Amino acid sequence: MSSDFYTSSVLPYAAIIIKICRAYTNTQVDFEDYYQEVCLQIWKSKDNFRGESEWATWIYRLSLNVCLTLLKKKKSSNQYFASDALTEEAIEDSRDFTDESLNLLYDAIRQLSEVDRGVILLYLEEKSYQEIADIIGTNPNNIGVRIKRIKGRLQKILHGKIN
Amino acid sequence: MERSIETIWKEGFLKGDAVIAPKLNNLYNQKSIHLIDKFKRMFKINLNAIVIGAVLFLIISFFIKIPIMGIGFFVILSVVVIVNRKLLKGLDRIDKSDNSYHYLLKFDHWMKEQLAVNKKMARVYYPLFFLSTVLGFWYSNFRGKTLGEKVVDELTIYFSDLFLLFGIPISGLVLIVIVAGLLAIFGNKIYSWDVNLIYGRVFSKLDEIISDMEELRK
Prior knowledge:
The complex is a heterodimer of chains A (163) and B (218). By secondary structure, chain A is an all-alpha fold.
């Protein structure tokens, strides 16, 4: 990737990529690998950007798709998804933010299904139901109901942990 | 009072350290860990290995006087390579920036299509490999005679009433047909077992995500 492309077209949107990659990984090493891979795929797929959506929306879509289909290799040679269920050890490893509440919120988000993680991230990024449906490829009418259900679940997980 | 998740999110990301991008390491030369890129890589490596193996075996087979086996293997493997090269092109048509549902669905379709095609082929090529091996040895040159003729000569010493068809004992032919038949029946299962061992987790994960998305599409 040319450093010009990264600086001008990717870095200004790094926050989007970071937020998504954090939700689909449990450890710092996995997070850094995912971030790197998303940047690589943005560069490789940039010619597919036809301007039908905003560049930021396109990055959301691509980052989400890449995170849904990344495989890592364990030392034992088995392949696994970094978004797979958390172990206690991984929970400890995944606390990366100085804001403890944000860490707890991410811990809770990581307990959701892959699709729910995508939906709630886009909701928290203040995307409209239509935009969320367009990015994920679903029906906007169901997004509201799903968000309500996800929020309920997150509140239940976080209950008593956050002031 | 507990803060809402929206407030936690906003306030958490207002702190500068929350969105510091990791350093990129030699990105351009990194091996991609993306599933599609991994498949492409794996397919290319496998197909190149098959081509090299088939050509080498073809040459060696002439030297060790089992050319029928060498030619048989070469023809079968060439078909496998041609078909899979065509399948591989399908992966290039998957747009990673499509919406998530279409992207996953296209990838899932590709996986299932390549699996179905290879399963069908396995039912044909497993028996053909076996037949090529048997014919290769049967017609291999053994001190001026074929190995088959030598075997028949030996057998007729003990079984004078041996019934032959095309110069091959009927009992041997029946055995060959049974083994080839079993390979045709179980060829697809052997292939599925092999693929599931490596990619079973990927298949189930994709199914899980797609069915969750389909629920949202209803």
